[in-house]
Amino acid sequence: MHALLSQKALLEAQLAQPDSPAWNIVMTAWYSGAADPTALLRSVETLAVEAESLGLGVLIDGPGEVRLVPGVAPVAERRFADRTEFEAWLAAERNRPFRADGTPLGHLTAVHVAGGRSGFVVVAHHGVADGYTGRLLVARVAELYAAATTGAAAPPRTFGTFAALAAEGAPAEPVDVDFWTTGLGGDVVAGREISLGRGIAVPAPRVVEAQTRIRVPGLADRPHWPALVMAATAAYTARFLGRDDAVLGVVVANRSTTAERSTPAQLMSVVPVRVVIDSEDTLDDVAEHLTDGLAAGRKRRNRAEDLMSALPFAWRAGRLHGPTVNVVPFLGTTVGGWTTEVAAWGPVEDCMIIVSGDPDTDLCVTLTFNPDLYSAAEAREHTDRLTGWLGRVLTDPGRRLDVVGLLTDDERAVHAALAGPAATDPAPSAPRWGEPTTAADLAAAAGRPGARVTVTVGGFDAPFGRPGVVTVSDGAGTVDTGLLAAPTPEGLVFRGLATDRVPVPGGYVELGEVRAVAGRAGVEFEVSVRRGVRVTLYPGAGDDGRALAEQVRAAMPPGVSVRLA
């Protein structure tokens, strides 16, 4: 049996890391009440027979020769003294890799935790199951269990067959290099950073995960709320990197035919989408841009691995997109008395942002990070910052994004305290953050009325929509004001203090962090932001200046230079 086009890459990837569990997906469905153990086990056993993809094994006969072996996923039953014991067992299952030896790439377990909680666990290789598969499995067990507990006959099988699904499969289309190069900004993507992290890496056996919840009043009343969430993630990425665009990997289910919608299998794909965010765009505008780009990309039916091979800019950048975003509306909601939890999402090369839950109540925001690229602290920082951003922009998707701050109130307070007495604080006449301003107002705010004003990024004139450092020049010389402003076709927009955040090539630098790192060295220092961000250290007579400089330089974020006075 030949593998589906959507399965091949995930199944072949296991060869590169045969002992890695990075390709595992793990899902638990909990019943809302006290479950009947016999009825639960019988329902799970029926599910194992009907969900053919979970019983598939794989044999690799050669490069590109992936052969599937039919089988039935094994079923077990386990009991646990408490939730801690269950979590330990689940972690062990999650970290156990599958083998390309023909044995089933999925297994199911009916579980009972002391105290009256019961459910079932699905552990599968991502090559045979995806998130939509989880939805099908839970819905089927819900109806099987309801029948088993009432003595009714088992409802007819609702799943499609894997053979029928395979018969519908279409070959991959040739890669249109011009379409993808233009659509993804490939003419400029090489050599720039499009990821929240630094560098590239293969999927790690374990990920760093952080999770939180938000409540957005009125979100459920907007039918296109998943697009708004993806658009907000794109805007966050662009803002964090200091760019006017973002290139996301958007997870799509690829379920349009009856066979696709009814058959458990791995059909999902990740479509790279570039979203350009204009200075006056609202979240609704960005959602429209993203939806149009996603629709155009999906029509091409190209696999990510084919794009990586065909597009020169992807070779140079080492990636097609930045963060992956996956909106899963059904996850976290109750289906027939069953609620789903996911313990492993499959391979994560960089970072994946998953938003799930019921918009009528609250949304769960889960971020999974490759630990080779992100620390646990960075994971938590992005989770907290993104969650705050989502809450602010989703509340009013018709508001211009450039007036919504990225920093939290707590961060602004910390940065202001670290900056100390601020000679760079604007005068009372300065405009408010995000409001239109003029060169004359900025010069007056800096205490140099009538001076010539320039707005630069890295020493060059700031492009439209991107915040730059404001400097003023007159007969008394040139002064770095410590203010930020963004040029637009209509004029300037005030973007706050340089003590908050300074653009540097490829991103931003938080000056609060810079000052905190320099301050830990225990010597006097000065931070300047004229051409990039530079820290000057003034060591005392008994200090090892070179060692201090190396210590501070190693702790600084990228884009900061350190020198000795």
TrEMBL record:
InterPro entries: CAT-like_dom_sf. Signal peptide: none annotated. It comes from the Bacteria. This is Condensation domain-containing protein. It comes from Tsukamurella soli. The lineage of its organism: Bacteria, Bacillati, Actinomycetota, Actinomycetes, Mycobacteriales.
